[in-house]
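Q: Two folds, back to back.
A: First:
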Amino acid sequence: MTALRFADSETLADLGTLVARAKSVDPDGAIRLQAHGRTLAAYVGVLPGSGLLAEGAVVGLRTMPLAAESDLDATVSLAAVSDRLARGDGTAGPAALDVPPVTVRAAWAAVAPPRSGWERVGTVAADVVNEAAREGIEEVAQGTPEQAGGHAVAALRQRVWQRSTTTVPPFPAGGAFAAYVLGFTPPGTEVTVFANGRWTRLSTPAGHVLVR
């Protein structure tokens, strides 16, 4: 069984927080665990996008230090990771995660964001980003009748989250939603916006949001 050994229990708890927040948005969602050397990149899907290339997908990313060398790239269910973290009975020790052996498929995980070539576009106050997210959440809630079908709800969410914000610089509103629900935008901080071709990245010290 593959295990990831973290630098300390606090770092493992950070992973647990990321998983819990992502699971609150999509209980059936997935997490991509990509470890090279002593660094783990943990990707979680927030908005799935559409089509084979997951156009419009919004993904959260946190990087975390590991205590031991590792080479891993696995996409597993959030529920499986959450269960293992909750039990805390892994064979690798208290600051380790036994990676679930069963992998899952997620369209957003098949399209990797670029590692280089990002250009800084500007900064936006986290409070402004959070307000944009809350406005979108309210719009989706008010525009979704109790008897609305799944297709109607999905279409409304797509319209709300794929449009650009009114911020300077603007970016897809789904990026604001992801940063807000994943806890990447504490009040009083700033969000740096980057662009790379069709990709947009929102970065804070707490994590990154990638929008295709």
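A: Second:
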Amino acid sequence: MSLSSPTGALTTRELIARYDAHAPRYTSYPTAAQFTPAVGAADWGAWLGAAPLDRAASLYLHIPFCKRLCWYCGCNTRAMNRVGVMSSYVDLLLKEADLVLERIGRPVRVGSIHLGGGTPNMLPPEELERLFAGLAARFDLGDCFEIAAELDPEVLTQGWVEAAGRIGLSRASLGVQDLSPKVQAAVNRPESFETIRWAAEALRGQGVTSLNLDLMYGLPLQGAEHVVTTVAQIAVLRPERIALFGYAHVPWMKPHQKLIKEADLPGPEERFTQSQAAARYLVQKGWQAIGLDHFALPHDSMAAAVRAGRLHRNFQGYTTDEAPVLIGLGASSISRTPQGFVQNHAQERDWRADVSAGTLPVARGVALNPRDAFVGEIIERLMCDFTVDVAEIARMRGRDLAEVAAVWPRLQRFQLDGLIEVNGTTVTVTDLGRPFVRAVCAAFDPGAADIEKRHARVV
């Protein structure tokens, strides 16, 4: 496949060669790679005390357990099936909630709860219900409009689905990745379509109204035909949302990825072909392209958020969540208030030790200054809407355009290559430029060059 820029100057191969650098995924700004130990538990405690809670907060709970370790995984998790370990983890999640609420010092309304991992459905059904009974005893869940969980279909049981129905699970994300047995074997994730179909039908039968399926491209031994075949199979299930992520090969950060043979990985041109072929298929079948790597049926709340210009981006990816406060519980969880971001200890033993000792288990973070908030909103709008009026954001935030004066010369090459259009202070990413939007965002990020090697490649 060979696309060319409007001037015919560059082919797809040339664009990839020019722009396929390492860049953040911009699920936050500043990015998690810029968090430091200089921000710790004392800061988080102070921010909690000053948190704006006139609107409902969001809760994120990290469950770092899996049945097996998938070799492509970039998450903070481990293989674990001992009920006692998981039960004590639930005890400490609730104790961490108590520590947070002590610092807040007033009732907290919660609008949404997200269980991530790892594999949240590794928790036995009785532990899931005990966890939610504990949350309901601590937080005001009367206005909670969404309870979501990331699930492994291979581990899902009828008992867990029924327990999920009792706690009010409304949105579920099923990990699929690829349905080719050859590709599954190369990443240690066996899974059948029938298992996924059963999971989807069982969850919908228990009240789940929004179903998301996670797919991946760029996996070892994967070709465009595997990606499109997988997409065609799961399209039959009509999930409200589909996420199509590019595999991030970062073995220097995730040593288990060394089990993947680099010679088996598709190159950047093949990855590009895979992602575009899948995107075309999904759009033809009725899904709307959302941001960089998500798709939603037109009736879904995410598609509605795009139409209203209210799509957001956080550590779970694209989201409709507009809560100003995100409280993360569990090992490696990230929290946010208007004052900044904090992340808990990634090592479960360190998290357990701090919580057991009555200490907020914060390992690192970053305080937000007004300039960070200004740049962060520019980047978020580019990632979500592919267009931003920089002057309008500056006006709303009381900032000076001179703060981003250095950006305009850096954007010239994107404009010349047809990846963006600049009209005054409005920057719009073209259809040609959308696969490279992270590179465009990095032009606004003064710290991008310093942390480049800590991120996956753009394509």
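Q: And?
A: The mean pLDDT is 94.
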